[in-house]
User: Which sequence fits this backbone?
C-alpha cells in the first residue's frame, strides 16, 4: 500500500506554520525518510515511514494498538536505533534537539519513593541544558500548569493514575519546548481528565509549540489536531491536514421520522443522491444543500421530522475507506 | 489541568507580572479543530522572564559553554548521590555494615575477658591494647562478602533498576546522554563503595578505641608502631579496599546494562564472586587465582607489614584498574547502542 500524502486545500493548510523558524532549523518539526525498525526476532514494527510534521501543527499520529506508534516515537527520541532510514527533529542532530523536546513515552515512569516535585527535579538534573538556579521556579510552573501544585510534595507512589499522567506531562513541560511528543497522553484517564489533556494540548499549541500526539482513539485526534497521519501495521496509510483527510468523503444528512417513504420522496425531489431508508430514519448525501432548507422542505410536505443531523465523515470512515479494514489491534 | 492557572510568557522583563490565564475545562470541538489562533513559532528567548543580566537564562542553547556542561555533569551526579544516599534500602545496607564491627568488637572483648588463652587467644592477644586492630579485622571479615553485597546492590541496580522502572527512557530523553549517564552511575557506585568502606573503618575504629584502649599498634611482623602511624595505615587500607569495591562496581555495572531486572544484575555479580571463591579453594585451579578479583581483596593487609608491602598493594591496584577498564568497556559497548524498549 502506498502512503497517500494529501496536501490540503482547506483553511488550515494556509495557516502560518513556521513563519519564522529558529535559525538553523528546517520548517518541519519532524521529518522521517524511510524510517524502519525491525526488532530482533524479525518483527517489522515500523516500515519505511515518511512523515513530515509541520512546525506549529498539532499532529495526530493515529493507529490501532501495535501499529508502531511508540516504536516510531522511541526512534525520534534516540531510544532505539532505526534499522534503516533517517530522521530529523527540529532540523538538528538528536542530541541538540532533545533539550527542546518534551516527551511522554508509553505512559508515566517515576521514582515511587520520591515526591512529584523531587521527581521533576531529578529529570531536570538529567538535562544538561537546564539550569539549576531556575529549576524550582520551572518545576513549580510545570506543576501549576497541570494542576498538580497541591500534590507536589506527595510521594509518587500515592498518586492516582490521572495524577501520574499529569506529572508526566509536567515533566515534558519543564523547559521552553519547541516540540512536544505525547504518546497516548489520555491513556487511563477518565473523560474529565481526557478533556483536560485536550485543553492543555490546545493551550500549548496556541503558544506556538508543535505537538506530536499519538493515539489509538480516532475521535480524540479529530478533536484536537490540525494534521494527522494514520498508521497500519507499521506503515503509513495517509497523512495530511484533518480537513484534507476527510475531504474525499461526503457529509450525510440523517433524518429521523416515522414517515420514511414520504421523506425519501421529498429528499429525492430536492436532488439528494444516495438516499437510504432505514427503520424510522433515512440518510442521504448532503451534497451542496443546506440542511435548514431540507428541513423546511420536509416540514412543508408535512413529514414529521423528529430529528435531523448532519453526519460528517470521521477519521474512522477515512481509515476504513483506505484500508478496507476495521480499526482494531494490529499483530 | 483545565482549571489550572497558567502563566503566559510576557516577554523579557515583564515576567513577574505574567498574566494569569484560565483554561476552560471543556473545549468545544469546533474550536479545537479549526479556529485555534496560532502565532508563528518564534525563536525561543529561553526563559525570557529571567533576570535581564543573566544571559542564557534557565536553559543554555545548543552551543552551551563547556563550563556549563561540566556544571551539568556535577548536578546529575549530585542528583544520583542524593537518590542513592536517601534510599532507605541503601541506608539499611550501610547501617548493617556499621553494626558488624561493633558486634565483632563486643564479641572479642567478651572472649578476651573469659577465655584467657584458648584458640582465640592469638587474635584476642593481638587485639588487647591494639585498638586500631579491630579495623583490619573487620575488613578481613567483611571484604569478601558483605561489603561486595552492598556495592553490588547499588551498582547492579544502576542501569537495570532505571530500565525496569521505566525511568531510563525519560532520563535518556531528557537527554541525559548515554555516556554521561553511565559515567555518573559508575562514579556514584564508586562513591558508595568508598562510603561502605569508610563506614566499616570508622565504626570499627571507634569501637576499637572504646573497647581495647591502648597506645601502640603491633604489626603482623611483630614490630610496633605509633597510633598516628596506625591511623595512616588505616587510611591506606581504606583507599585500597575502596578501590577493590570500585573494581567490583564496574563488574556489577556491566551486568546491569544487560538486563531490565536489577535483582538479576545484583545476583549475577554475587554468583560470580562466589564462583571465584570456589575456584580459589580448588588447588588444581591455582594458576587462575591471581587473575580473580577477590584474590586481591584481602591484600590490604600489606599495610600491616613492616615496612608496608607496597608491591602487593600496587599489584592489587593494577588488577583493579584492569578490571575497571575491561568491564567499563563492556558496559559502554553494551549501553551505547542498546535499544531502550523498557
Ligand atoms: N521490544 C520489542 N521487541 C519485539 N517486538 C516489539 C518490541 N516492541 C514492540 N514490538 C512490536 O512492534 C509492534 C509495534 O509496537 P508499538 O510501537 O508499541 O505499537 P503502538 O505504540 O502503535 O501500539 C507491535 O507488533 C509490537 O508487538
Ligand atoms: Mg504505544
Assistant:
Amino acid at each position: 500500500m502506498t502512503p497517500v500524502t494529501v496536501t490540503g486545500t482547506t483553511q488550515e493548510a494556509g495557516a502560518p506554520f513556521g513563519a519564522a523558524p529558529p535559525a538553523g532549523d528546517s520548517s518541519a518539526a519532524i521529518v522521517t525518510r524511510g524510517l524502519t525498525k525491525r526488532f530482533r526476532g524479525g518483527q517489522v514494527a515500523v516500515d519505511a515511514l515518511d512523515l513530515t510534521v509541520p512546525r506549529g501543527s498539532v499532529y495526530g499520529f493515529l493507529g490501532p494498538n501495535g501499529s508502531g506508534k511508540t516504536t516510531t516515537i522511541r526512534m525520534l527520541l534516540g531510544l532505539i536505533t532505526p534499522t534503516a532510514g533517517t530522521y530529523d527533529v527540529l532540523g538538528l542532530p538528536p542530541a541538540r534537539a532533545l533539550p527542546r523536546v518534551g516527551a511522554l513515552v508509553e505512559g508515566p515512569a517515576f521514582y515511587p519513593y520520591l515526591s512529584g516535585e523531587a521527581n521533576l527535579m531529578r529529570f531536570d538534573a538529567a538535562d544538561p541544558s537546564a539550569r539549576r538556579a531556575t529549576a524550582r521556579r520551572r518545576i513549580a510552573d510545570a506543576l501549576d500548569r497541570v494542576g498538580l501544585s497541591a500534590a507536589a510534595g506527595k510521594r509518587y507512589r500515592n498518586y492516582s493514575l490521572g495524577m501520574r499522567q499529569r506529572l508526566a506531562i509536567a515533566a515534558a513541560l519543564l523547559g521552553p519546548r519547541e516540540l512536544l511528543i505525547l504518546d497516548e497522553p489520555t491513556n487511563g484517564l477518565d473523560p474529565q481528565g481526557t478533556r483536560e489533556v485536550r485543553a492543555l494540548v490546545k493551550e500549548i499549541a496556541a503558544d506556538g509549540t508543535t505537538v506530536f500526539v499519538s493515539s489509538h482513539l480516532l475521535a480524540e485526534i479529530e478533536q484536537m489536531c490540525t494534521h494527522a497521519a494514520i498508521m497500519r501495521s507499521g506503515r503509513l496509510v495517509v497523512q495530511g491536514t484533518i480537513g484534507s483527510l476527510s475531504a474525499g468523503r461526503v457529509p450525510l444528512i440523517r433524518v429521523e421520522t416515522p414517515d420514511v417513504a414520504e421523506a425519501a420522496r421529498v429528499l429525492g425531489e430536492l436532488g439528494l443522491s444516495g438516499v437510504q431508508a432505514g427503520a424510522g430514519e433515512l440518510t442521504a448525501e448532503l451534497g451542496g444543500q443546506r440542511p435548514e432548507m431540507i428541513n423546511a422542505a420536509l416540514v412543508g410536505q408535512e413529514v414529521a421530522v423528529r430529528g435531523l443531523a448532519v453526519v460528517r465523515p470521521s477519521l474512522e470512515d477515512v481509515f476504513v475507506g483506505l484500508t478496507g479494514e476495521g480499526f482494531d489491534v494490529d499483530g | 489541568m483545565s482549571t489550572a492557572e497558567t502563566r503566559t510568557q510576557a516577554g523579557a522583563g515583564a515576567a513577574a507580572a505574567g498574566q494569569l490565564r484560565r483554561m476552560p475545562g471543556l473545549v468545544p470541538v469546533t474550536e479545537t479543530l479549526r479556529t485555534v489562533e496560532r502565532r508563528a513559532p518564534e525563536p525561543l528567548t529561553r526563559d525570557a522572564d529571567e533576570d535581564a543580566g543573566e544571559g542564557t537564562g534557565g536553559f543554555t542553547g545548543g552551543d552551551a559553554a563547556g563550563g556549563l556542561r561540566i556544571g551539568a555533569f556535577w548536578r546529575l551526579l549530585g542528583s544520583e548521590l542524593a537518590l542513592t544516599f536517601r534510599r532507605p534500602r541503601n541506608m539499611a545496607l550501610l547501617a548493617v555494615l556499621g553494626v558488624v564491627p561493633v558486634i565483632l568488637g563486643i564479641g572479642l572483648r567478651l572472649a578476651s575477658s573469659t577465655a584467657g588463652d584458648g584458640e582465640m587467644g592469638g587474635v584476642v592477644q593481638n587485639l588487647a591494647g591494639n585498638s586500631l586492630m579491630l579495623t583490619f579485622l573487620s575488613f578481613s571479615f567483611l571484604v569478601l562478602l558483605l561489603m561486595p553485597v552492598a556495592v553490588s546492590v547499588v551498582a547492579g541496580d544502576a542501569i537495570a533498576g532505571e530500565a525496569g522502572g521505566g525511568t531510563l527512557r525519560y532520563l535518556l530523553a531528557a537527554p541525559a546522554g548515554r555516556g554521561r549517564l553511565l559515567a555518573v552511575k559508575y562514579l556514584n557506585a564508586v562513591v558508595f563503595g568508598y562510603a561502605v568502606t569508610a563506614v566499616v573503618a570508622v565504626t570499627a575504629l571507634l569501637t576499637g578505641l572504646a573497647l581495647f584502649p591502648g597506645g601502640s599498634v603491633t604489626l603482623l611482623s611483630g614490630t610496633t608502631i605509633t597510633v598516628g602511624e596506625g591511623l595512616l595505615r588505616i587510611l591506606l587500607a581504606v583507599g585500597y579496599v575502596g578501590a577493590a569495591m570500585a573494581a567490583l562496581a564496574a563488574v556489577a555495572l556491566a551486568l546491569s546494562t544487560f538486563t531490565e531486572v536489577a535483582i538479576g544484575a545484583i545476583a549475577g555479580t554475587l554468583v560470580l564472586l562466589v564462583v571465584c571463591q570456589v575456584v580459589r579453594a580448588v588447588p588444581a585451579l591455582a594458576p587462575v587465582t591471581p587473575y580473580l578479583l577477590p584474590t586481591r581483596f584481602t591484600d590490604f593487609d600489606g599495610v600491616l607489614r613492616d615496612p608496608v608491602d607496597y608491591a602487593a598493594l600496587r599489584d592489587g591496584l593494577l588488577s583493579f584498574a584492569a578490571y575497571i577498564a575491561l568491564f567499563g568497556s563492556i558496559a559502554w559497548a553494551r549501553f551505547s547502542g542498546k535499544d531502550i524498549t523498557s
User: Anything to note?
Assistant: Chain B is about 65% helix and 5% strand.
